[in-house]
Amino acid sequence: MKLTDVLIKPILTEKANLQQDKLRTYSFKVGKLANKLEIKKAVEEFYGVSVKSVNTAVAPGKNKSRQTKKRVTQGVRPAYKKAFVTVADGETIDLYTNI
User: Fold this and answer.
1) What pLDDT does residue 9 have?
2) Residues 20, 26: contact at Cβ < 8 Å?
């Protein structure tokens, strides 16, 4: 798997920002086939930091429905994989420079 396919985008939420400040843990949306070693290598190469640990989780797809004039439309939002990357002491990743 290519390193550009591993990291899709960072997750920028209030909870993720609190984890960045207190625990030095950054959240990323990653490819479903990416493993922890590939995620670690991609973060170290793209952001130039040393990674202490990588934890992954798969967020399941959610059922969604909406009501229109003619009928109720139902569907499923896709599942995705998240990675929680903890960097070494004294190092940070600036995720807001690319926005």
Assistant:
1) 93
2) yes
Which CA distances in Å does 24 have to 14, 38, 52, 69?
14, 20, 10, 48
CATH assignment, 3-87: 3.30.70.330
Please write the tens of the pLDDT for every residue from 5-60.
Answer: 999 999 999 999 999 999 999 999 999 999 999 999 999 999 999 999 999 999 99
Neighbouring C-alpha atoms within 13 Å toward the C-beta of 40: 12
41: CB partners within 8 A, 6+ apart:
3, 6
Beta bridge partners of 80: 59
Place of tokens 């797809």: 61
Could you give the CA distance from residue 16 to residue 55 in angstroms, rounded to a whole number? 14
Predicted local confidence at residue 98, as pLDDT:
62
